[in-house]
Records
---
Amino acid sequence: MREKTSYKPGLDGVIASETQLSYLDVEAEEIVLRGYDLIELAKSRQYLDLVQLLLQGELPDQQERSTLEQQLKKEYDLPDNFFALFHKLPKQTHPMDALRTGISALAGYEQDLNGRSEEQIKQIALSLLAKIPNIVANSYHILYDEKVIAPRQELSYSENFLHMITGKKPTATEAAYFDQSLMVYSEHEMPNSTFTARVIASTNSDIYGALTGAVASLKGNLHGGANEAVMHMLLEGKTTDGFRHLLYEKLKKKEKVMGFGHRVYMKKMDPRALLMKEALRELAAVKNRNDLMEMCEAGEQLMKEEKGLYPNLDYYAAPVYYLLGIPIDLYTPIFFAARTLGLCAHVSEQYANNKLFRPRVLYTGPRGLHP
Ligand SMILES: CC(=O)SCCNC(=O)CCNC(=O)[C@H](O)C(C)(C)COP(=O)(O)OP(=O)(O)OC[C@H]1O[C@@H](n2cnc3c(N)ncnc32)[C@H](O)[C@@H]1OP(=O)(O)O
Ligand SMILES: O=C([O-])CC(=O)C(=O)O
């Protein structure tokens, strides 16, 4: 009986870990990142500032940010002949699976695979933050028989990431919203992928393995995969009326509507979605796509009225990426690239204060059988 009362399906509401990295304070409507409000940071800072904050503990000044950027730029290149790996993959491979393969393969090149100190993990984290955008963009280009786009040293970190994806130098507005999207995707307490990474790290396995597992977790459409699903839904709907009709049909069939609901914020709007909604409003105006904004708002309204459900980050990040000219198959890999930051910080924290994850079960099978 005691076991029954302590069992929470999906570990709903269960505290899995102590952390100094982040906390979702639903009452205060604040995503706390090392004491700062993520939304305030995303409005006033840059992704690289969050890198320093999460890996080092403090926000950088301009000089420190520029030193960090130089460090990352030195690590952009992948090992020789690394892209051969992606040429060998079947063409229908999803970019998330290519990314998973790529991160796993990087372990073989690591000189310090057994390093578990904070400093060693920070160095690997910086290398991953430098290389993962290259893997994301170029594994996609290879799978689609397009030319590889080399990193450009003269562009900022996020301008370069977006350039490697689209092949075009982004405008200042495009680069700013892309950077903001990386910030809001960077860290979010204990989602399934972070839990996965910490569970793997807790066996004292290496960080590449922990992140490889996290890619698989993030791919699912109940988690990161929802951003791609949202865009497919918007395109299928075509118009505001078409989109409304599509959502009604899904609800009638008791299907889940991607981009809505959240384990933690279920009855409130995800604060990150609100920020991406504003980004969409501005990008839609610049790109003459107010129709897309209208469709999204109509969907938001309908889901609130019909189900009392609110958008999560993926709902508004998807159309933002669409207007930035990003191929839909890359939305979840980009989410992962941004989340590499939070994941590395969590893995480091796990190593620093490790306890093997090994929960128990509520056994509901038979007993007393004999062969
Ligand atoms: C950045 C991110 O990763 S955010 C998450 C992205 N994922 C999505 O957008 C997928 C769609 N959303 C969902 O599936 C869910 O809201 C989740 C997985 C995010 C959270 O799920 P849980 O906390 O496990 O809640 P659960 O799925 O049990 O939902 C509770 C109730 O709300 C309903 N519900 C929740 N989300 C949705 C949705 N998107 N569409 C329709 N109904 C929904 C469920 O059907 C369920 O109803 P019931 O009690 O009548 O059966
Ligand atoms: O917190 C979660 O469960 C999912 C999520 O929004 C994220 O990982 O950003």
---
Amino acid sequence: MFCPPAELQKKCEALDANWRAYRAAPRFEQFVEFAITVSSFAEFLHSKGLSGLHQIARDLEQQALSLFGDELSHPVPEHVFDELASRIAGLTARVAGYIENGSRPIEERRAGSQDSDPADDLAPPRRVWFIGDKSPAWRDLITQLGYFGVRVEVFGWQNVPNAQDEPAILMLDTLGLSATEASRRIKMIRARFSASNLLGLNIEADFSCLQAILGAGCDFCFVRATPQPAIMAKIVELNGGEEEAPYRVLVVEDSLTASKLVQRTLGENGIESLAIAQPREVLTTLKRYQPDLILMDMHMPDCTGVEAARVIRQHTEFLSIPIVYLSGETDVALQIEALRLGGDHFLTKPFNPVILNAIVKSKIERYRSLRRSMFHDSLTGLLNHTSSKQRLDTALNLAMAEQEPMAVAMIDIDHFKKVNDSYGHPVGDQVIRSLAWLLKQRLRKSDILGRYGGEEFLVALPGATLTQAFQILDRIRHDFSQIKHPFNETWFNTTFSSGVAQFPLISNGEALVKQADEALYEAKRAGRDRVVVRG
Ligand SMILES: Nc1nc2c(ncn2[C@@H]2O[C@H](COP(=O)(O)OP(=O)(O)OP(=O)(O)O)[C@@H](O)[C@H]2O)c(=O)[nH]1
């Protein structure tokens, strides 16, 4: 999630320009432009993981929305002008300071790893600072994080370094501090760090304390006695920095002017869109474009939006895609009927662009989260069995078309039954998660990684030869065997075995998995803790 300083600067200048335009001509339409830019800037900062700047922009957005009103509400009173001006000046100064500091954006590791050679040493370590009075409890957590490429530095509250080189995450331990004192210190840290995610540790679980800590600028709170694996999981997740594909919206609208307006509004917020004027093209376009949401005009010449939605809902693959109607219709009975017949929301024209974006985004977030749970495994977040197989077939077709090699590996944790029997099922789960984190950290984004069964994983490395695949997997095997899994006051090690097969030696997905499985059993028979390739 690298954020080029020039892009940040440009977005900030656009905000400033729109604000000046409103000051010069304080009309409603100009305020709408300003509010759209604020909203788009806040979204941009969020998407780039610039947590501190995002919080300031979000507050500004809230204020702008509360002043939205209509033609009669503008110009806003003079003291409101001054308040907005001071917030904007504060935000632009923070952005300028951040750019000047040359602070590294927080999630560059994967950006750098994507196009690298399969045998490259991937992923420079990610940095986390622990702030607080040193606690022995951190030692284990810091060691564990080290296994997954996360480098931790520890500082007391009094000697937090300057924000020249912001870490990805600041863990703020509030143990022994009153809620008021903790909030005061967190506020100071938030004011200094524009990008880092702030995670509060050992926070009192009561409502007002959490409210105060979040209000002071913390992004996430761990209440007292949160189990270590939960803290680990959050840190590893934030460090993963996986960039999501842009949201996609299909606009079905017969008026060219209306669709252009909608597309422009979506585009301002980084949402991709495609417009069609003919409802009868909707099914083929849905298949081809694969949007996350449909914005549907209610009244079109040959077909109403409701009729189109009913046709869409006849297809199982489009049963859950959100449909939001756009219409001049204010008849409540008709709106309810439209929602009953397959729609998810109703927006009346002329639409408020900021509300349109907010609704589109929240519907897409839910839809994507639903799809994630359908295609991903809940324990590790990796692809589940079915989707790993599907992704493998797609990657294989691509490898065939491009005449590139591709290695496929099966990985299975050794003597895992013993882990469960000796330490319990939850500890076994944590071992599975650790292997998933390690694989995720070491493989490229273009590689395929799935949890194939209980303690079995499938990995496909497009472009990798058998030799390269062996090098990569054997290094991961070695590093996994070094991990000390904590158990009560002690720890234990565990290992995995792996078997590897390769396209084009075998050219069918199922046969590749079978061959890799056979190599895996050879590795198990030969004594485990090894990688066997089938050439
Ligand atoms: N904790 C936990 N255990 C699981 C999960 N899924 C499967 N298992 C356990 O994993 C163990 C797999 O054991 P086996 O297939 O006999 O193999 P193994 O003990 O790993 O021995 P080898 O593979 O021969 O080295 C079984 O005891 C399963 O109950 C899971 O999601 N969590």
